[in-house]
Write a structure and sequence with these properties.
There is one protein chain. Helix 1 crosses helix 6 (about 110-150), helix 1 (about 1-30) packs antiparallel against helix 10 and helix 2 crosses helix 3. The protein has two domains: about 1-30 and about 145-195 and about 205-245, no CATH class; about 35-135, no CATH class. It is mainly alpha-helical. It is about 70% helix and about 0% strand. It starts with a helix and ends in an 8-residue tail after the last helix. It is built from ten helices and no strands.
């Protein structure tokens, strides 16, 4: 019983580590391509267009607002601001209007009214679109990792289950006197447990394609999911171990 739980714990730990790598790659792509600022510019451009502003002018104005020095906060390269509040938007519009009268290209009162009514809803839609983009990137990165590592989750579970015998040997040997523990390396000589390949052989997916696809799908669930799974299993283990130890005729590894 505990052996099965240990297998699940090991499996969740491995997937958590891989999901963290996927998350790092996803965040790196988002930062490099300024996806937050790009989606925010599209949303503001749409908001201005609905206010009666010409499409090209609306998009140019949105990028001008988000690239304003008071908002962008770039470190190395010029970038569009990833977020903006309604008060900030109105202030930046006022500053831009001081340099070039906006009345020539838009109805400022209509724009202000549209912002008051639709700003919050527009920001919600922008957040949803950005989350959708991040989800797509996460799925693509998960499939890329799974196929690059040739990670067969079904085979991985099998290897972890076969490692039960190795863990039993280790437990029994560690309980022996120190002198007798010298035989421990010999007990490990014939133990083979390879979680990830030490080298990458030629790609052969004929028999493991479903396991690789399953690995990609599982990694795409995200690091927070596997962290919660691992935390839940970890909290369950001591409870289950106490019940197994309390049961007559049962041992902790049955």
């Amino acid at each position: 019983m505990l052996n099965n739980l240990d297998v699940l714990l090991s499996f969740a730990t491995i997937l958590l580590g891989l999901s963290l790598l996927v998350m790092v790659l996803t965040q790196t792509i988002s930062t490099c391509f300024n996806l937050r600022g790009y989606n925010l510019a599209l949303g503001l451009g749409t908001l201005f267009e609905e206010s009666g502003v010409d499409g090209d002018v609306a998009r140019k104005l949105a990028r001008q607002i988000l690239s304003h020095p008071l908002l962008e906060g770039a470190t190395l390269l010029p970038r569009l601001a990833p977020a903006i509040r309604r008060e900030e938007l109105m202030v930046i519009l006022g500053l831009i209007g001081e340099r070039a009268p906006l009345e020539e290209v838009m109805d400022t009162e209509r724009v202000a009214h549209t912002i008051d009514v639709w700003f919050e809803s527009t920001m919600d839609r922008i957040s949803q679109k950005f989350a959708g983009w991040m989800r797509v990137i996460t799925v693509v990165a998960s499939f890329a990792f799974a196929f690059a590592l040739q990670l067969d989750s079904l085979q991985l579970l099998k290897q972890l289950a076969e490692g039960t015998e190795l863990r039993a040997v280790l437990d029994s040997r560690l309980q022996e006197p120190p002198v007798e523990r010298r035989t421990l390396p010999a007990a490990l000589e014939h133990a083979e447990l390879e979680l990830l390949p030490s080298h990458f052989p030629p790609v052969r997916y004929q028999h493991g394609i479903w396991g690789v696809l399953a690995s990609a799908v599982l990694m795409s669930l995200g690091a927070p999911f596997w962290f919660n799974v691992l935390r839940g299993l970890s909290s369950l283990r001591p409870v289950l171990a106490n019940r197994v130890d309390a049961a007559p005729g049962m041992t902790g590894r049955e």
